[in-house]
User: Fold this.
Amino acid sequence: MIARKTPSEIERMRRAGRVVAETLRELAAAVRPGVTTAELNAIAEREIRARGAIPSFKGYRGFPGSICTSLNGEIVHGIPGRRRVRKGDLVKLDCGAIVDGFHGDAAVTIPAGDPGPEATALIDATRRALAAGIAEARPGRRLGDLGAAVQAVAESAGFSVVLEYVGHGIGRALHEEPPVPNHGVRGKGMRLEEGLVLAIEPMVNAGGAETRLLADGWTVVTADGSLSAHFEHTVAVTSEGPLILTDGG
Ligand code: MG
Ligand code: MG
Assistant:
């Protein structure tokens, strides 16, 4: 079932989104060579709780962290731990927070110093793919339009979109209907309606699209070991167009 949100529910979701945006800003500032992913997790826990919110991911299906921290060829769902970030690493930070019963969910890719030309191009393409997807989040467009827009940006830059992991509806639950793929065919798929709130989250690999799940049961990596980037926003479909709830505004 698809839960459409009222304008007042979307306002409440914006408060959750603001907590996520502010927490990600603090985390991005803390990314540097030598920091451990557990230290980043502690910052997230502190920043989310300081705002009266609850980390969405903590305990979600048993996930041990308050955020996901995924490095380099790890795509998503990396578990924070003792590992230290090294110079040039790509650090993907995925953060969710609950305020007043509603979730916000967003992710960024932050390089620890200069990651080199390929990684810089990958980050840029993934950010642009997210923007292209968000631009399609309007009443009357279809999920296929959104996925096709994301995919076109990533592939025209020479990269691959991950197929097995997708965005999602979001609201009182972290993951709601519908799934929001990062690939698609224009004119196909569910028609978007006012009040739908979507977590749009392109995962883009420098190499092939194939993924592998590590033995920890969480961490998803590129099958070929290539770099991966991830950006995500929680976006409401409104009559005035896409409303980004996790941009801090
Ligand atoms: Mg997320
Ligand atoms: Mg998400």
